[in-house]
């Protein structure tokens, strides 16, 4: 993108691209993500129903034992229901309301991401020879790699029926640490790429930043604790289908953002060229 583009133009461009990207990500989430969430909720409710029945009919002595010590049975069902929130008639937000909120959430996320993308593009064009649509696509690819791919392969997404609500704060901080790790690894790889840019060997220009990125991510993965709260009874196929759909949703968001920003940048450049031609 040329330096003649003002920051305001880039910001509007980012918001427009982010709006479209958010809507597309919402559509993908609705089509391929919602069925897996519904299946996970069904498993959660099926697992909690027998425990609730036993909880309501037990003798006083047995009830005290269940509530106080049976953390493997009824306690896990309550934890799963707590993290997934209530999906029954007493839910604060109905499933239909959650589906509408899905598009609202992805749209707002797209707008916010588009604004941040515009700010990064504004400064990136001043420190690199890459410009125009290529810069937009490069930033989108690096952003997805740092903010989505690196955290995902260390702490992949889990469906509503998976996870202990008592560890949600710990898992949130670990995920944020993985995002910082991804950003740091991309920053170092970019710096290494600039250092070896003058070399005459293409293999070195490609291998050096890739190796730097992999080394930093590998060290970070080893240093950070693992999290595995998936129960042995949860269907493995459903778990991985959910995780793949989550990865597809985020890939859609970043790909649409990069392509949208690149298209608007190229369109603006062609309009400027036509304006100069008529002078």
From TrEMBL:
> What residue spans carry the Basic and acidic residues bias annotation?
52-77
Instruction: Report the domain of life of the source organism.
Output: Bacteria
Q: What parts of the sequence cross the membrane? A: 12-32, 100-123, 130-153, 173-192, 204-224, 244-264
KW Transmembrane helix (keyword) present: yes
Keyword Glycoprotein belongs to the record: no
Any idea which UniProt keywords this protein has? Membrane, Transmembrane, Transmembrane helix
The record's section on InterPro entries has:
CbtA_put
Disordered as annotated region, ranges: 49-90
Name recorded for this polypeptide: Cobalt transporter CbtA
Q: Which organism is it from?
A: Rhodococcus olei
């Amino acid at each position: 993108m040329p330096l003649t583009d003002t920051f305001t133009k880039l910001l509007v461009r980012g918001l427009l691209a982010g709006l479209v990207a958010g809507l597309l990500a919402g559509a993908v989430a609705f089509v391929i993500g919602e069925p897996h969430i519904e299946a996970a909720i069904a498993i959660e409710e099926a697992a909690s129903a027998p425990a609730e029945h036993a909880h309501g009919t037990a003798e006083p002595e047995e009830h005290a034992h269940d509530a106080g010590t049976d953390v493997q049975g009824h306690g896990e069902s309550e934890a799963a229901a707590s993290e997934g929130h209530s999906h029954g008639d007493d839910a604060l937000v109905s499933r239909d309301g959650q589906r509408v909120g899905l598009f609202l959430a992805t749209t707002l996320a797209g707008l916010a991401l588009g604004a941040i993308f515009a700010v990064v593009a504004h400064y990136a064009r001043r420190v690199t020879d890459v410009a125009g649509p290529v810069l937009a696509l490069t930033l989108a690819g690096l952003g997805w790699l740092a903010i989505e791919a690196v955290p995902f392969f260390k702490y992949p997404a889990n469906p509503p029926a998976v996870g202990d609500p008592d560890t949600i704060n710990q898992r949130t901080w670990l995920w944020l640490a993985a995002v910082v790790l991804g950003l740091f690894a991309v920053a170092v790889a970019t710096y290494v790429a600039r250092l070896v840019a003058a070399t005459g060997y293409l293999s070195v220009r490609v291998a050096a930043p890739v190796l730097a990125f992999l080394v930093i991510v590998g060290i970070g993965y080893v240093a950070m604790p693992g999290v595995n709260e998936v129960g042995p009874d949860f269907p493995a196929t459903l778990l991985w289908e959910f995780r793949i759909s989550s990865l597809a949703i985020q890939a859609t968001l970043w790909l649409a953002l990069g392509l949208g920003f690149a298209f608007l940048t190229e369109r603006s450049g062609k309009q400027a060229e036509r304006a100069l031609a008529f002078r």
